[in-house]
Amino acid sequence: MRWVESLRNIAKGLPKSRVELRFGKTALYVSDIAEQYYCEAKVHNQYLYGDIETPGKREGERLHESIRMVATKIDRIIKDIKERGYTIVRIPLWTWRGDVVICGKPDFIIFQRGKPSYLVELKTTTGKVGKIWRDEVLQVMLYVNLLEGMGFNIGGTKPVIIKTKQKFHPEVYNHMIKTLLSYLPEYENVQRLEEEYKKRIGLRIMKTTILEYEDKEVEEALEWALDYWIGKREPKPTKKRKKCEVCEYRDKCVWYKK
Ligand code: SF4
C-alpha cells in the first residue's frame, strides 16, 4: 500500500523542491497557498516583513492548542487506520506537485475502515460562523489533494470546515470539538448539537460545513498559485478595500492605495 510507505516517509523528513522558490523556500505550505486566494500580496508581505501578531491570530492559536491529541507513533497510526473501524488522526501530509513539494498539517483526519472519510479544518471568527470564504474552502480541499498524492483512496472523502466563535474557554472548546467530531458520521446529530448550543447560548456559536471535493478546482488553483512561487509573475493584491482596512501589513504594503 503506497499510503503506508508515504506515512513512514514522513518520519524521514521533507525532501527539497527541485526548483527555486521565492524566499528560498524548499517546500510550500497549503496554508500559504490558500492565503494567496485571500490576498497574495499579504503572503508576500508576510515573508518579506515576518509574521505580525493580531488578536484574531492569537485567539485562533489558543483554541487550536486546546484540542489535546495523544502523541502516537507512526506505526501505531498505520495499524489503527488499517484495523479500526473509526479513528481520528492528526498527521503532517506532503506530496510532489511536479518539482515542488507541497506540505501541511490539517487539524484532523477521520478514517473509517481504512479510508479517509472526513478531512476537518477548524476556523474561528468574530463574524458569522455560517460564512465560509474561498481561501478556507481551498485550504481544506488542498489537504484532500495531498492525501491523494500520498496514495490514499479519496473517493468519498469529505472536506469539512468547523467554524466557531472566538473566546471559548479551552476546556469547553476541547469538549465541544471532540463531541462534534465523534458525531460527524451522523450529520443529523451534528446539526442537532449545533441547534442545542444555539438554544442554550442564544446565539449561533458554531457551524459545520461539509463540502464536496472538486479536483478540477484544486488543480487550477494550484497552477495559478505556483506561478507566483516560481517567479513567473509578481504578487497580486486583493481588490477588496475592506480586506486592506483590517490588514496588519497595511502600513508596509506597497500595493495599498491610501
Ligand atoms: S494592505 Fe491590502 S493589498 Fe496589502 S497585503 Fe494587506 S490586504 Fe493585501
- Name the CATH class: Alpha Beta
User: Describe the biggest sheet?
Assistant: 5 strands, mixed
- Give the helix proportion (percent range): 40-55%
Number of strands: 8
How many domains? The number is: 1
Q: Which CATH architecture is right?
A: Alpha-Beta Complex
Strand arrangement across the biggest beta sheet: 2-5-6-7-8
Outline the low-pLDDT stretches: none
Secondary-structure class = alpha/beta
Number of DSSP helices? 9
The bound ligands are: iron/sulfur cluster
The share of residues in extended strands comes to 15-25%
CATH third-level topology:
Lambda Exonuclease, Chain A
Our measurement of the CA-to-CA distance between the termini, rounded to an integer number of angstroms, reads: 55 Å
Look at the structure and give the mean pLDDT: 92
Q: Rough shape?
A: globular
Order of helices and strands: HEHHHEEEEEHEHHEHH
Rg calc: 19 Å
